[in-house]
Each structure stands twice: as C-alpha cells, then as structure tokens.
Amino acid sequence: MYCKKIAFTIIFLFIAAFSFAQVKTTVRSPNKNIELNFWLNDQGAPMYTVSYKNKEVLLPSAMGFELKQTMSNEALPALKDSLVVTASAQTTSNTQWKPVWGDVKEIRDHYSQLVVSLSQKGDKAISFNIIFKVYDDGIGFRYEFPKQKNLGHFIVSAEKTAFHLAGDHKAFWIPGDYDSNEFNPNITKLSEVNAEDPKYAANIFAHKFFDKDAVQTPLMLKTNDGLYINIHEAALVNYPAMNLHIDKSNFTLSSVLVPDALGNKAYLQAPAKTPWRTIIVSDKATDILASHTIMNLNDPAVIKDPSWIKPTKYVGVWWEMHVGKASWDSASGKHGATTANVKRYIDFAAKHGFAGVLVEGWNVGWEDWFGQYKENVFDFVTPYGDFDVKGLQKYAASKKVKLIMHHETSASVTNYERQMDTAYRFMKAHGYDAVKTGYVGHIIPRGEHHDGQWMINHYVRVAQKTASYKIMLDAHEPVRPTGLHRTYPNWLASEAARGMEFNAWSEGNRPNHDVILPFTRFMGGPMDYTPGIFQLELNYWDKTKKETIHTTLAKQLALYVTICSPLQMAADLPEAYEKKMDAFQFIKDVAVDWDDSKYLEAEPGEYITVARKAKGSKNWFVGAITNENGRSTNVSLDFLDAGKKYQAIIYADAADADYQKNPAAYIISKQVVDNKSVLSLKLAAGGGCAVSIMPVK
C-alpha cells in the first residue's frame, strides 16, 4: 500500500509537471529555407527556435515579460511561464508595394504568419499575443496586449525575449550604451565582448557603460559554418530601444530595454504592441544587405501625397568647422555662417547642380551650448547679426538652391518641444523645407536617455510634426533607425553612428568602418554619413597633425554607392573640389534615389561591391570598397540591358595609392562596355573604386 501510494504520487507529479507542455507549431518561409518552431515548455513558458536550411540559428529561446501596476508600482504576475495557448492561427501573405524612395522601386512583402494567443489561468489572468512573420530571409515577431479587464495602464519592468545562439560566433559590435552609437565597431567572438576594455569602448564623449557584456543592435554575426545572422528590431514606436546582454556561458542574448530615470522600461496602455524583434539570416552576406524585412515590418506611409519629398545632394557650412578653419559661434572671430560665406556655398551648389546648402552655426547661442544639462540655449529663430536670413532666402531662390536648416537642441529636448511649431513656421516663411536636428549632450528631462521610451516618442513626434509642415528631416544623435522611414518618408536619414566628422578631430574611423556599417547600422535605415572628403591629409589644416583620414579618395567616391541614402552630402569645402574637378564629376553624376540595386559581393568587415540603377534612368553606378587590405576584384556587368553599349568611367585608386601613405592618388579611365563585360578593379589598402555607367549616345 505504501509503495502504491508513492507510485501514485510520482505519477501525479509527473503529469502536473508536464500539464503546460504543448506540441510544437512549425512555420516555414515561403521558400522553405527558414523554419520557426513555437511551443510552451513544461513550465508553460513560451519558447521558439529558428533554423536555416536545417542549420541551427537559434536554439530554444525564451519569451515573455515582467510587468508592474502603473499606480501602485506593484508587480503583476509575470508573463513568462504558467501560460496556456488559447488560440493559434497560420496565414500567408504575398503583396508588392512601392517606396517613396530607396534602393529599389518595388518591394515584395511575402511571408508566412503565425499568431498565438496566450493567457494565464484564473480570474485575474492577463492575455497577450505573439505574432511571427517568417520571410525567405528572416523572421520578425512582436507582442500585442489586447484590451482586457485585467490590464489597463501598466509598466514593462523587463522584457524576457532571448536569442539563444548555437555557438561562439564572430560578432561585429559596439557597446550597449544608452546614449550614443558613435563608436568604431569591434570584431571579436561573443565570448570576448567587453565594453570596459578601452580598445573596444574608446569614444570621444566617454559615455558610461551600464553593462560591459551588452551590445547594441543591429548586431551582425557570422558562424563557423558559414551563416550570416543579423539581430535588430523594426517599428520602434512608444517603447525603448533594445540592447542585448551576452551570457558567455551558453551564448544566449537577452533583451535589455533602455530605462527611464526611475528604472522603468516602458509605460503602456492596452491595447498595446511592442516593436518587432528581427532575425535576418542567410548563407550569403549579400542577402543580408539586400533584405527588406525590416522595412516590410513597418506600417505603410502616412503621407498620402509625398511629391514634396525630394532625395537631395547637398553641400554646406560644416566641415570647415570640424577642421578648425571656422567656428559655429560668432564671438570667435572666424564665424562660418556669415552671409558672404553662405553665398559662396550657394554659388558653388548652383554651378554644380546641388539642390541644397546646409548652414550650421547660423543662430545665436553657440558660445556656451555644450556641457551637462544646458537648458534653453537656442530659440531656433534668432540669427547672428552677420547672417541675413531674408537676404539669403532671396539669393538662394534666385540660384534655384534650397537652404537646409540646422536645429541643435543641445539635448534640451523639452525646450525644443515647446518651440517646434514656432521654428517650423519660421522655416517655411524663409524658404526652408529640410531640417537637420541634433541632440548632443545629456537629455533634458534629466535622467532620460537618447534611446529610452520618452525620446523614442520625441523622435516620432518630430517626424510627424515636420511632415505636417512638409519639411524633410535629418536627425543627428538619435536612436538607431528601425525602418520608420517607410511610415514617415519625409524622415530621409539619421546619423546614429560614427560619422565622417570623427576623422577630423579624433583617432578617426578605422578602414573597416565603412565595410561594417552596411551590415549593422544601415540595416534599419539610411545614414547621413557625409562622405566626399578630398583633402585627406589633416596637416593641411593643423600642422601638428600627421594623420590622414583612413580612406583613399577613390573610396570616398565609392561610398556614394555603397551607402544607400536619399540624403548625400559633398562634405568637403568648395576649394577642395575645385582642385580635383575631374574626380568631383562622379559626385555630380551619382544618384541618390534608385530603381534597382545589385549586391554583387560582400563580406562584413572586409569588402563590399554594389551596383545601383538611378531612379527613372538607364544610368548605373558601381561602388567597391575594402578594409585596410588591398584587393582585386572582377565585376561582371551582366545586369546591363542586353544589346546596348555603355560608357564606363572608372575612378580608381592609383597603383601607388594607400590610405596611410598616399591617400589622394587616383586615376580615371574610360571604356565602352556591355552586359558581357567584366571590369577588373584593383583596390588599394583602405581604398575603393567608383564607376559610372551610362548609355552611349
């Protein structure tokens, strides 16, 4: 009897322990290469796996939340175990849509979808949904909280999403800082990530690191068996950005949401939804670059008539401040934004076909703007006395050039919020239809971070507000993009990475920087990277400097193709271009909006070759760039129309070019080509090659 009782108890416990377990639900991509499995484990915890061509991408990975009451701050029952599936449905979708601008003229949105409804048990149960979309090149999933009696206003204290990787992959990463993305990317194994190590964490602004084992997204990975994996997010709205903490014992990446001043992550009200978590995967690096999954996961454009949105090439009063020739403030005696100097840039833009001129340092306040918590420095409508707003408006209009406004907020965001309408009305009254915003410094409200929920909402409000005034937006020092340029196509570009200016006054950007960014930062959207520097020896500006910018001149040209952005600056001074007008011709010719893009070859951190067809044109442009190692490559032109002849103008590194020893050495050659031609290109160390291909007339 005693033995029977023990046996019965063991059986009962065995049944109870497995009462939550569910049969796995499998979803496959339309081409069957990617497989996602979802189930509840023995504890009722939601789990998922991902594979690509039968190779493990993600091992069993957890999902869920920890929540709190908004008013009482008391914990709600955690949504990470003891759950049951209340409904499940699979569907497929296959549509096409046309972006306002971008790397292609039409995008296919083809996926298999699984929607799972989950709930706790009992009268006070909270329910939520997980939506998976499985594409041919990756997956996206998000959480939704439907309207329900047991969940009104609530706080997300932690998101328990995990990405359990199958090994110690090579990682291309920057530290998980909450306020800056402006780091040289690092290449190590996951087990070697350490944001406190100076050689990895070096940053001109010396930001604090909250977790030495955390990295930012987009995170690019390469496995030993040849898979390329990219982890990021899409449609980041009303929610903090996600960093990833690395458990080096088993290579599980756990979501780390950027907190507010109280340590809370997100304040939501049901119905609510999170951003999509994205995993892009392929055995070809070029497929990662060609992916449109993140854009597909964003909502369609809210701007019904986008005809006023114009992809733009521009010049501006900017680089001369970074190299020390001029200053932003008027009191220095070398003010850059004077009426006479701006007219000089307007004349240059008009002569060479540039649509815009950016002017920084035009408004009062630059004498004492930078530092901790500088409030109410700028009013965005009061110019310095040597900047004639109305006169320059008329002069630019007479030359058919648009001036681009600059709004540096000094991170006093509450001040900017109060003045946005006033500032945008001032812009429209004086002929400006594009603005570059800036958020340098510590965010006000105090305790908020650049990547926290409050600021995420601010960036979206700026996109919405500028759209209402028909103003195009270029945001600097914001959160990294997540594809919202589909929803707000007036949001042409963001910085959110280490841009060209670091080459002027820091240790500079490493030669591999430009062959990593397309696999990391650019996954979420275009960057205002400001290429086109021709004066590469820094001692031209400062005799104490011996460095060169870590790139050749030909690579600077190629960046206009490898960096896909509808906003491209010819960043150097007019006099630098006037010395090399033959090379400057490529910048004049190259497009900023495209009908097609062909990612011909790529390896993260090493090389990229891209061909793009200009919007509404038969002209093609090719860009090839490399890291610190020189290389040769053969580029097939089989993407050209059959039976037609083209003239290829090749802007290449000279035989003795080298990013350290001879960066400005280039050669230009021409040849007639067709779709059977193969170009043999030689790239110097830190170099590149740019090619314009136009039909023979």
Describe the structure.
17% of the residues lie in helices and 33% in strands. With 697 residues, the protein is of the alpha+beta class. Among the domains are: 276 residues, Beta-galactosidase, Chain A, domain 5 (Distorted Sandwich), CATH 2.70.98; 201 residues, TIM Barrel, CATH 3.20.20. Strands 6, 7, 8, 9, 12, 13, 15, 16, 20 and 21 form a ten-stranded antiparallel sheet that branches. The protein has an eight-stranded antiparallel sheet with strand order 1-2-3-4-11-18-17-14, with no helix packed on it. A hairpin with a 2-residue loop joins strand 3 and strand 4. The longest helix is centred in the middle third of the chain and has 17 residues.
Architecture blueprint of SSEs:
Elements: H1 2-17, E1 25-28, E2 34-40, E3 46-52, E4 55-62, E5 65-69, E6 84-97, E7 107-119, E8 127-135, E9 138-145, E10 153-159, E11 162-165, E12 170-173, E13 186-189, H2 198-201, E14 214-216, E15 219-222, E16 228-234, E17 242-247, E18 252-257, E19 266-269, E20 272-273, E21 276-282, H3 285-290, H4 293-296, E22 312-317, H5 319-322, H6 339-352, E23 356-359, H7 389-398, E24 402-408, H8 413-429, E25 434-438, H9 453-468, E26 472-475, E27 491-494, H10 502-505, H11 553-562, E28 567-569, H12 574-578, H13 581-589, E29 594-603, E30 607-614, E31 620-626, E32 631-636, E33 646-653, E34 666-673, E35 678-683, E36 688-695
Parallel strand pairs: 22-23, 22-28, 23-24, 24-25, 25-26, 26-27
Antiparallel strand pairs: 1-2, 2-3, 3-4, 4-11, 5-10, 6-7, 7-8, 8-9, 9-20, 9-21, 10-19, 11-18, 12-13, 12-15, 14-17, 15-16, 16-21, 17-18, 29-30, 30-31, 31-36, 32-35, 33-34, 33-36
Helix pairs in contact: 6-7, 8-9
